[in-house]
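Input (structure):
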């Protein structure tokens, strides 16, 4: 849920039977709309517009507001492309501002939050960093682009209209 009046974004989880609010997240951070969540492995994954990926337990935490199980480090800004989860890996697209060449990235993180993670609260670093550069075009894997997983391949399309990645 995005509230433009006070510029906060939250993940709100509704009870499927009653359509009432089961629980909500604290402010996801960022100054713009967060991504649509990806749901897999009993978790909801959402990207904020500041380039962080946040993982929440779908069942909640037994309270009205639930903190994330883990977050990624800040990985770039400028978009809130929905993450994709496949085979225990969550793929997260981040903006070009973290790359000195202006190239976009797709980051692969352990969906369970067990690998390459530390601290309290738990912060995870990517297992892999896939850098866009094959087309020689700069830009981010962002809106109106995004990511798609089909037939075991991950595709990323930048907002500039160029195919960014095929993995």
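Output (sequence):
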């Amino acid at each position: 849920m995005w509230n433009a009046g006070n510029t906060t974004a939250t993940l709100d989880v509704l009870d499927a039977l009653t359509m009432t609010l089961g629980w909500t997240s604290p402010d996801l951070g960022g100054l713009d709309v967060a991504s649509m969540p990806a749901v897999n492995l009993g978790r909801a994954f959402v990207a904020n517009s500041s380039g962080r990926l946040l993982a929440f337990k779908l069942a909640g935490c037994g309270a009205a507001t639930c903190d994330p199980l883990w977050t990624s480090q800040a990985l770039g800004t400028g978009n809130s492309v929905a993450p994709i989860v496949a085979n225990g890996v969550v793929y997260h697209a981040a903006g070009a501002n973290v790359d000195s060449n202006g190239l976009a990235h797709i980051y692969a993180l352990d969906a369970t939050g067990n690998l390459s993670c530390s601290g309290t609260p738990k912060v995870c670093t990517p297992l892999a960093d896939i850098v866009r550069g094959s087309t020689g075009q700069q830009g981010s894997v962002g809106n109106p682009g995004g990511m798609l997983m089909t037939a075991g391949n991950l595709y990323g399309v930048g907002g500039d209209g160029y195919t960014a990645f095929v993995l």
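Notes: The longest strand covers residues 89-94. The chain has a mean pLDDT of 80.
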